[in-house]
Amino acid sequence: MIQINQDRRVNLDDITAEHLAYYQSRIEKKIDTYLAGRLPREQRAFLRDVRTKLRTILIGSPEELERFSEETERKYPAVVAQIRQAKKSKKGSAVSFSEKVQKLFNYEAFKKRYDPSQ
Fold this sequence. Notes:
Elements: H1 12-36, H2 41-52, H3 54-59, H4 62-75, H5 77-84, H6 97-104, H7 107-114
Helix pairs in contact: 1-2
């Protein structure tokens, strides 16, 4: 867990480094697993791009994240549309691409890591 100094000052560089160290390798492994499987060319390119820009996604400034988002929407409109339409797969069927992307950035697990009351 990230510790906050007793005088309530937070060292943002430490928090940033810890966040990056914890999530980067985990997400890279998931991406590599997905890339090892069968995916359409555009989904594969999207995941490679996400992997390349993972540092920005995890610790980028709001401006960097906005640029990444705009670039991604421009380069991969069909993939972005799939992710936005995120339909949950039926039990027993293959996991949809949007579910795979959501699992990469599992926000529920992230919240639980930093907020034990979750």
